[in-house]
Amino acid sequence: MQKIMSRVVILCGIILAFIRCSHKNELTNSRDKDLPALTTIVLDSMRMDATFYPFGWTVNGDILWALSRQDSLFLTGYDRNQNLKPIIRWGRIGQGPDDYIVPGIISKCQNNYVGLYSNTANKSVEYNLKDGNLIEISKNSFPIWHEDRKIPKPYTRVIKANDSIFIGVYFLPREPGADIFNLKNQNISYTVTPSFKPEDEMSGPYEFNLDISNNYIAVAYRYIDRMEFYKLNNDHIPEILHSIGDIKSQKDLYNEDRDDEMIKYYSDISCVSGNAYALYQGVKEENLEDAHTHLEIFDMENGKCIANIALDKYYTNIIATMDSMIYLYSPNMDDYVYISDCSAINK
Description:
The protein is mainly beta. The protein contains two helices and 26 strands. The strands form four sheets. It has a nine-stranded antiparallel sheet. Strands 11-10-9-8-12-13-14-15 form an eight-stranded mixed sheet, with no helix packed on it. The chain has a five-stranded mixed sheet with strand order 2-19-18-17-16, with no helix packed on it. Strand 13 (about 165-170) and strand 14 form a beta hairpin. It is globular and about 50 Å long. The two termini are about 35 Å apart.
């Protein structure tokens, strides 16, 4: 595998002007769009051994796991200590007991474990990488949503919060949300939904991404310039701490099928060590290919923006890790992964 190092100096500004409201139901902060301070980060580009398009990816321990539905062996594990050398290819699409029809990957498993799930088969399986093979160590089912078919909601993202608590993000035609549930007893403790969404509207304008770290949850909206920060209490109920931005939707454009004219704000978010790393676009869908993404880093406890980094191209996916590394994917360069050490910024 060939490694190409590109030393990309990237300007960033730090946004530190937020106004916190006193009433819990009015936790909307204003945002200072100026960039009063500049700093730099370095991105290394790593060329992969094949076209890399992650339908789902995660870093667990020393392994970056990526799921691609384009190959019969849909799961690949890359060694982070060996320049992302592929060390295992695994998985089978099919109807058998160990197969997956439409596989999904579970974020934030521990060590070098990897979790996979199937909505249609209603199964969640965790595997341990041992001696070059994946060994099944646990198997569970999600809470039942469709009683007749015995299936869960069609989760698009599943995140492991701890040994028993998971979060499943879904987008039904008229209901976007995220279930917080106990995988062992299949009880849903709470469902996060946009509190400002009018009833009986399509969910498309209100789509969001979500991640969790240290019991703090960050929600980033795709078509609304808005971030929200929650904290789970002892009953695993999220309590809102801060919201940043506005609640202006683009429902008129969506309802008129003018999706290309909709401004895309946040495309992805990854949380680790109490910080949220969000990819901000701020341009119309039709102009995304030429966009320069911003990486916004937030302290989730106080809702402050630590850094706003202007990147060199359009990035859609991000993973932040415990050792302060970030991994980025750009659809404009789909055989590369971009990597940076953000330890200096996080201090």
